[in-house]
């Protein structure tokens, strides 16, 4: 495509289209839907999850606190701590998020059975949509696959709340197979690897099936599936304000089908400032480690951190992926859990040197962000998740798709809540700040 003219039009357009930055302040526009103090503009009420990173003192000043994440009022740390050998901790969290209470064993069994009965994909779906049409990016492929599921639904445009629950649970159950097969298909087509297709097993949990479907020999240890189960739990929801969940609710508020809304959420989660940060962290750490190795020299690490912030290294975005958060400043509770597990697994797998480097890098990034940008920022969930997945032998292509598998339940829970208790089409306003112009006939321009 010859872009010369487009470049010329684009260059000329800026005289006509420019919006001076001060106007945002003049009209009190909340850029990024944020208040002056960085907190999010209130756009809804929820009882699904609470993301706590600050409180207000008596004078109304924002005070940063350690991060806490509650699912239906229960601290996620309590869920992780009380695991007690349960194989279905993620499924238990799904029940909790969807129905608001902790299931009795019999209720959890019934819920898991519904998921298991829906694990498999419709006839010909695997062949027609995944094997014959491999995708070079799994997130885009997931969007495509979800939109295609619409065609297999007899009543896809039914947006009734209960129907949405049924459809959503079916999507949740099928996502692990879709993602794993999309990965296998990509590897086979683009990398000429052997095509591995294991059908999901009904005696396996979501976490177990993912490991089973990804591995050639289908084998995994209990420790590995336990860690993945916890990771799925940690990613399952993050309140109504995170970009992909908000996207879901915005799209659904038009009363469109759930397949369109989920596809939109996947598009949002792919972004490197959101869920896609987990791949960026892995790539950034590759670049850092190949430059300075697992050095214990803080100065060398600081130099590279400064270069990252000054847009002189890696992708020159100026961002350090895996750090910072819209709500958490002092700590992201999910990163705390993951750091703990990464330490344990790294020792078992002989990867202590790498883990210690991650710890040092984390400390220096935090100090440098404060020093250079005045920003109190912590490692977020995406900083340690890739390292953990890597130790589980999970390929990078699957990092963000795993987030989708896990977060689907959060999207669904907020979608249902919004349908039940808000239900109005989302329609904020923008202020026109251009001029009013005459239409000039062609011969006079
Ligand atoms: C699952 C998740 O979505 S967790 C988040 C995953 N994303 C990442 O890890 C990407 C890196 N982090 C970021 O881009 C940001 O911290 C976000 C998107 C997570 C949050 O963004 P915001 O809430 O807008 O950031 P915040 O208001 O705290 O940032 C203020 C300033 O600090 C900068 N900043 C924030 N995080 C970082 C970072 N990781 N590296 C460098 N600078 C940063 C911002 O660019 C901004 O600078 P500016 O005023 O010069 O433009
Ligand atoms: O809350 C956010 O903005 C991003 C996040 O951590 C998540 O969605 O898990």
TrEMBL record:
An annotated GO cellular component: cytosol
Family matches, as NCBIfam families: PRK14032.1
Pathway: Carbohydrate metabolism; tricarboxylic acid cycle
Catalytic reaction list: oxaloacetate + acetyl-CoA + H2O = citrate + CoA + H(+)
Stored SUPFAM superfamilies: Citrate synthase
Protein name, per record: Citrate synthase
Residues annotated as the enzyme's active site: 325, 382
Keywords: Acyltransferase, Transferase
Family statement drawn from the similarity comment of this UniProt entry: Belongs to the citrate synthase family.
GO BP: carbohydrate metabolic process; tricarboxylic acid cycle
GO molecular function: citrate synthase activity
């Amino acid at each position: 495509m010859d872009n010369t003219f487009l470049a010329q039009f684009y260059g000329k357009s800026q005289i006509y289209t420019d919006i001076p930055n001060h106007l945002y302040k003049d009209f009190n526009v909340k850029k990024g839907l944020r208040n002056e103090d960085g907190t999010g503009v209130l756009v809804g009420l929820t009882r699904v999850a609470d993301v706590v990173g600050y409180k207000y003192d008596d004078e109304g000043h924002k005070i940063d606190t350690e991060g806490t994440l509650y699912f239906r009022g229960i601290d996620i740390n309590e869920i992780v701590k009380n695991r007690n050998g349960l194989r279905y901790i993620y499924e238990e969290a799904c029940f909790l998020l969807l129905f608001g209470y902790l299931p009795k064993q019999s209720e959890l069994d019934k819920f898991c059975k519904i998921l298991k009965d829906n694990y498999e994909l419709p006839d010909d779906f695997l062949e027609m949509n995944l094997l014959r049409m491999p995708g070079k990016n799994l997130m885009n492929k997931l969007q495509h696959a979800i939109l295609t599921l619409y065609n297999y639904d007899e009543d896809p445009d039914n947006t009734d709340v209960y129907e949405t629950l049924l459809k959503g649970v079916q999507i949740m159950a099928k996502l692990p197979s879709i993602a794993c097969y999309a990965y296998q298909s990509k590897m086979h087509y683009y990398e000429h690897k052997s095509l591995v297709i294991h059908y999901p097993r009904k005696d396996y949990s979501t976490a177990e099936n993912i490991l089973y479907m990804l591995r050639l020999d289908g084998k995994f240890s209990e420790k590995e599936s336990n860690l993945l189960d916890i990771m799925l739990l940690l990613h399952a929801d993050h309140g109504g304000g995170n970009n992909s969940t908000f996207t879901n609710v915005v799209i659904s508020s038009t009363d469109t089908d759930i397949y369109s809304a989920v596809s939109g959420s996947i598009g949002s989660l792919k972004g490197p400032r959101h869920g896609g940060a987990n791949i960026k962290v892995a790539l950034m750490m590759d670049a850092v480690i190949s430059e300075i190795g697992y050095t214990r020299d803080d100065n060398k690490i600081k130099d590279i951190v400064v270069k990252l912030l000054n847009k002189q290294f890696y992708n020159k975005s100026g961002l350090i992926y895996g750090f910072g958060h819209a709500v958490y400043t002092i700590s992201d509770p999910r990163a705390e859990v993951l750091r703990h597990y990464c330490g344990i697994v790294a020792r078992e797998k002989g990867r202590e040197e790498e883990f210690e480097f991650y710890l040092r890098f984390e400390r220096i990034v935090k100090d440098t962000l404060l020093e250079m940008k005045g920003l109190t920022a912590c490692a977020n969930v995406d900083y340690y998740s890739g390292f953990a997945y890597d130790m589980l032998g999970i390929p990078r292509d699957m990092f963000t798709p795993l987030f989708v598998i896990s977060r689907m339940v959060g999207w669904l829970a907020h979608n249902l809540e919004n349908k039940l208790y808000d239900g109005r089409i989302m329609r904020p306003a923008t202020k026109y700040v251009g001029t009013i112009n005459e239409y000039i006939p062609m011969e006079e321009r």
